[in-house]
Amino acid sequence: MKKITHPERSILRYRWMALTGLVLVLIYTALTGCNQASGAKTTLSDTAAVIGEMNAELTHAPFVPNSRGAFQPEKVIVKIEVVEKVMKLADGVDYTFWTFGGSVPGPFIRVQEGDEVELHLSNSPGNKMPHNIDLHAVNGPGGGAEATLTVPGHSSVFTFRVMNPGLYVYHCATAPVGMHIANGMYGLVLVEPKGGLPKVDKEFYIMQGEFYTKGKNGEAGLQPFDMDKAIKEQPEYVVFNGSVGAATGSNALQAKVGDRVRLYVGNGGPNLVSSFHVIGQIFDKVYQEGGSQVNQNVGTTLIPSGGAAILEFTCHEPGTYNIVDHSIFRAFNQGALAQLIVSGPEDKVVYSGKVKDELYQPGSPEVSESEAPAEASIPDLPLAERIKKGQVLFETNCSSCHQPTGLGLPGAIPPLAQSDFLMNRQDKGIGVLLHGLNNEAITVNGNHYQGVMPQLPLSDDQIANILSYVRNNWGNKSPVVQEKEVKKLRNQ
Amino acid sequence: MRSLFALLLLGFISSPLQDHSGMIKIPAGELRPFLLLAGQNGRIKVHSFYLDIHAVTNDEFLQFVKANPRWKRSGVSRAFADSNYLKQWAGDIEIGDDRIRNSPVTNISWFAANAYCKWKGKRLPTMDEWEYAAGAPPVNAKRGRDLSRIILEWYDHPNPAVLPVVGSTYKNRFGVYDMHGLIWEWVEDFNSVMPGSENRGPGGNPFVCGAGALGTANKEDYAAYMRYAFRESLQAAYTVGGLGFRCAQDIE
Question: Which chain A residue has its CA at the smallest distance from B221's CA?
Answer without folding.
Answer: A176
